[in-house]
Specification:
187 residues; alpha+beta; four-stranded antiparallel beta sheet; 4 strands; 56% helix; globular; binds heme C
Length: 187
């Protein structure tokens, strides 16, 4: 009996080691998807801010960000997006899992973790199916404060008010967590 228990425990241990390996592979793949999405998004943002300034670049965020999310979802087979505890666009509002993770990210940052590296991955069950979910924190950089800070220029505020009457995504300081990338794929 003791031996059988030992074998059983050994199997469990191997099983979870395998699961860990699988999770690691998904995390690495997910990080690649985020890198590609973020690279494209940041490229558009920086180009827009340099060439046209913040007012016109709002249009980039308004239309290009969702279409890039869609394009990267199609390319990768993951569902890719961005979310936050205080969203500008209600379409980006977090679900229950995302809200819990965003709160966890705030706690981890407060405990001293480097915001550039804060990641969470988990296999969850949704409607009876196993789904791999992952989030990565997005810290606020200097350029972000032009549209998400507490001292936003008047023409920018006017455009934001027009497009997003329920905008909550203002008042951020450099280093604050602006939100997170959020990814999922069915297993
Ligand atoms: C030119 C103005 C502008 C700048 C600069 C800007 N954003 Fe935004 N941001 C927006 C707009 C507009 C939206 C809403 C996009 C949409 O409709 O999906 C948005 C949405 C977001 C969202 C999605 C969640 C939400 O609030 O709806 C995140 C996350 C985000 N921005 C992070 C950043 C970060 C990080 C930076 C700096 C690297 C940044 N933004 C710079 C205008 C801007």
């Amino acid at each position: 009996m003791k031996v059988r228990n030992a074998v059983f425990l050994a199997c469990l241990a191997t099983g979870s080691a395998l699961a860990d390996e699988a999770v690691k592979a998904h995390v690495n793949e997910g990080k690649g998807v985020i890198k590609a999405f973020f690279g494209d998004l940041k490229g558009e943002l920086v180009k827009g801010m340099k060439q046209h300034g913040p007012v016109k670049t709002i249009a980039t965020c308004n239309t290009v960000a969702p279409s890039l999310a869609e394009a990267h979802s199609q390319m990768s087979g993951w569902q890719v997006g961005r979310t936050s505890l205080k969203v500008r666009n209600a379409d980006n509002a977090p679900d229950a899992w995302e809200t819990a993770v965003l709160n966890e990210f705030e706690a981890r940052k407060a405990a001293g973790e480097d915001p550039m590296k804060i990641v969470k991955a988990e296999v969850v069950e949704e409607k009876g199916r196993k789904v791999f979910r992952m989030m990565k924190a997005i810290p606020t950089a200097e350029v972000c404060t032009k549209c998400h800070g507490s001292d936003i220029a008047q023409p920018v505020t006017a455009k934001l008010d027009e497009l997003y009457p329920n905008d909550q995504a203002r008042g951020y300081k450099v280093g604050d967590l602006r939100g997170a990338f959020t990814l999922k794929k069915p297993l």
